[in-house]
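seq:
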Amino acid sequence: MKPTLKQLLLGTAMVTVLAFTYWMGTRSNHSADAKSTAQSMAGPKILYYRNPMGLPDTSDVPKKDSMGMDYIPVYEEGAKSAQEKKERKILYYRNPMGLPDTSAVPKQDSMGMDYIPVYADEAESSGGTVVKISVDKVQMLGVKTEQVGLRQINRNVRAVGRIEADERRVYNIAPKFEGWVDQLLVDATGDVVKPGQNLFEVYSPELISAQREYLIALQGVKSMKDAAPEAQGGMQELAQASLMRLKSWDIGDEDLRKLRETGEVKRTIAYRSPVNGIVTEKAAIKGMRFMPGEMMYKIADLSTLWVIADVSEQDSGLIKTGQLAKIRLDAYPGREFSSRVTYVYPTLNAQTRTTQVRLELANAGGLLRPGMYAQVELAGLGSKGRVVAVPDTAVINSGRREVVLVDLGEGRFEAREVKLGVRSDDYVEVLEGIRKGEKVVVSANFLIDAESNLKAVIAGFTQSVQEPLRGSQAEKSKQSEK
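struct:
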């Protein structure tokens, strides 16, 4: 049976409708795919733009600051999947400016900035030693790291010293008899004297009496040449005793020789210098009377001087006798004097907490003077071979322990306690706590440590605030149940 014209028209219409429906569905799918592709190409949504210098200034549209720097876009954290967001548990929201202010729900501060969520995986781990900081903040802080390696540590000890006269070369001129100063032959402090040079002439009745006794004894010895040996021996002993008395008073051999040759008692006798040096003190005055043992001159031999350096208590254990030292003086800039440690004093100055170290220095040409200040650099003890060492700037001293920040990558830093050894000017030996090849923070580590402490304070603050709330809510629930 052949279809009628009506049936043919109806079938054609149904085919046309089906074809149009299929074309519209295909177009809709293509549009959805294109929209999804465009959204994926567009990237995450920009929430706002922040100041490039970290100032509390934001903008809804792109702009530049006063120096022409572009504001930095802050993207929505919607790039992560819903599953990832669900797995990351939010502990609380913290103030975007770092203030100790937290919130259990999302909110904004007085400037309209959103509070920053703190996730559970960002909290401190490993006993509170790891802190996570965003990459932007790491760059803004100027964090610099250095790889730990092996180094030879040599530490030099620096101290302030002063030049003093050698105590073993200082002489006190004091007559051993009573008398008067008749003439001053060296009459000024600072005069240079030589051994045997006349210092002053003295008049002493005791000295005159001793000269006469000696001469009488000599005459007796001469007159008793033909006497009995016993008598000669007694007179010779008397003459010898008189001679020893004059020598004990420091009367020189030249004066005694003249006394024997001339047989005349001298009214005054010159007192001579026993050493070569400089008069540092003078008490003798012409016409003054002096008593036995009274100081008349003080003479110092400055051919060799001492350098007394004050070494701090913490460095005193590094100083040993015989160590080399370099000495610099303000009077002769650019010039160095070499010496060695000759003595380490066994006492400690309780006021300055320093130990004195003695060095000897030859004073060729008389360039050095007692009283000068000196900068002393002592070659201290070093490490035995190459050891694990970190820059001195990497160590944070809290007073009770030393800590370094280890870069774990991806903005994570671990505060690790270390045990230190020998220090140099720039590096310090690490005995325990760190290994070769790890990276440590050498710049802005105090800022990271402050960030870590801030998070710990915020966490403790949040916990202390939330616990009482939970308790009050529990009491309210119990009352409602009753």
